[in-house]
């Protein structure tokens, strides 16, 4: 590269710098368009919030006014009635927690016995 080419390149970029300094740089806000505020921007969230509040109010009032369910009592009477024991227990006294065996106990093979 000869010195004359080096001088031409330096002068070329010096001229470009001068031209760039003369250009007006726009402000950042001027580049973006102004947003127009729409009333729908506020009406839709307010409507959603209002409907949720009303729905929650209706749901809580229906929960409070519900009637309690009646309990059903079934009494079984047998033909043989004993004066001493009017009701017969379905559970016998011989049953205990320790005498219970699983229905699938026979499936377990214990080879350590």
From TrEMBL:
<keyword id="KW-0472">Membrane</keyword>
<protein>
    <recommendedName>
        <fullName>Anti-sigma factor</fullName>
    </recommendedName>
</protein>
<feature type="transmembrane region" description="Helical">
    <location>
        <begin position="42"/>
        <end position="59"/>
    </location>
</feature>
<keyword id="KW-0812">Transmembrane</keyword>
<keyword id="KW-1133">Transmembrane helix</keyword>
């Amino acid at each position: 590269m000869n010195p004359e080419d080096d001088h031409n390149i330096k002068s070329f970029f010096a001229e470009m710098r001068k031209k760039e300094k003369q250009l007006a740089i726009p402000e950042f806000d001027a580049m973006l368009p102004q947003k127009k505020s729409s009333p729908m921007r506020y009406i839709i969230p307010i409507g959603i919030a209002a409907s949720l509040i009303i729905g929650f109010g209706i749901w809580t009032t229906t929960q409070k006014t519900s009637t309690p369910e009646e309990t059903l009592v079934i009494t079984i009477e047998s033909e043989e009635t004993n004066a001493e024991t009017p009701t017969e227990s379905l559970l016998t006294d011989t049953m205990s927690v320790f005498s219970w065996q699983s229905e699938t106990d026979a499936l377990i093979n214990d080879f350590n016995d």
